[in-house]
Amino acid sequence: MRISIGNFPDTVNEFAARSVAGLVLLLSLLTIWTQSLWLVLALAFGFLARVLYGPKFSPFARLAIHVLVPVFRLGERIVPGPPKRFAQGIGLVFSGTASALLGFGFLLEFRFVLGILAFFAALECFLGFCAGCFVFGKLMEWGWIPREICEKCNNLTFSSEK
């Protein structure tokens, strides 16, 4: 079996992505409450796994795809993958920053950064608004991200543009 870095899917089931956001929200709130370095590192690992490989090595993505979506019969709504990957990258930056802040004892700043992450995870989970996807779309519109990066974006609607 050959594994290559950068194997993120071209398309994503929005309901699976929203389920992952719900799990991120729960873990973020639990981590803020417990101030556990292990939990915030697990959160950062999940984002790193999703950025590098999509759902393949992400426990939350696998749980969402194989359990939550089928059990709750959430269905399938296909959205472009690159904006979701961009959003996962932003989540990695926030969770990584929160990890460093907690590790160095900056508790108030840790809570603030992880609180922002939890807020945006809640927006995606409950309202279907992916802030990272919205920013990705704007960056494409302004020419900062070439249109070739996301051919699917030209044919499918961003989850933030409902």
UniProtKB/TrEMBL annotation:
Stretches assigned to the DUF4395 domain: 12-140
Keywords, ordered alphabetically: Membrane, Transmembrane, Transmembrane helix
Pfam families linked: DUF4395
Transmembrane segments: 20-45, 86-106, 112-137
Keyword Transcription regulation (UniProt): no
InterPro entries registered for this protein in UniProt: DUF4395 (IPR025508)
Protein name: DUF4395 domain-containing protein
Organism per entry: Leptospira fletcheri
